[in-house]
Amino acid sequence: MSDVVELFPSSKPSARAYEPRPRSGLVGSRKNMHTFTFRSRSLILGASEADLIRDVRRDTDKAENKLKAIQARLKGVQERAANEVRELTRASKKLGAAIEAAKKQPDACMSGAEFAEYYATLPLDAQLAVSECLRQLSRQSS
Fold first, then answer.
1. pTM of the model
2. How far apart are CA 52 and CA 38, in angstroms?
3. Could you tell me if 39 and 66 are in contact, meaning their C-beta atoms sit under 8 angstroms apart?
4. 59 Cβ contact list (under 8 Å, min separation 6)
């Protein structure tokens, strides 16, 4: 046995004879990409009625599959749009109510508990700045 590893084995003729492939759309039982898909949405919209009818007649199954895909996409888009409309409506009502409440109480301030909760969320440098402002205000009022 030899210690030499053969990196590039000599090319040996294949047991199968070379069979050239025909250039038509069908190759045996396989199909090329032109036979898998129907027109895109933009091509459907841009096509004349006669061209579209001709393509549908050529392959009704592909046309029906494309129609099902478009209808499923349309349903999904409608559901997402309806959800967004609901969320925007809720946000609009909630913000509108808050604006109206703020207009009715223009001088209302935070309660001590609300301020403490808000103050705790501030970064340290902001807390220091707020504390300094409060000290200056208390000096001015006394």
1. 0.46
2. 10
3. yes
4. 35, 38
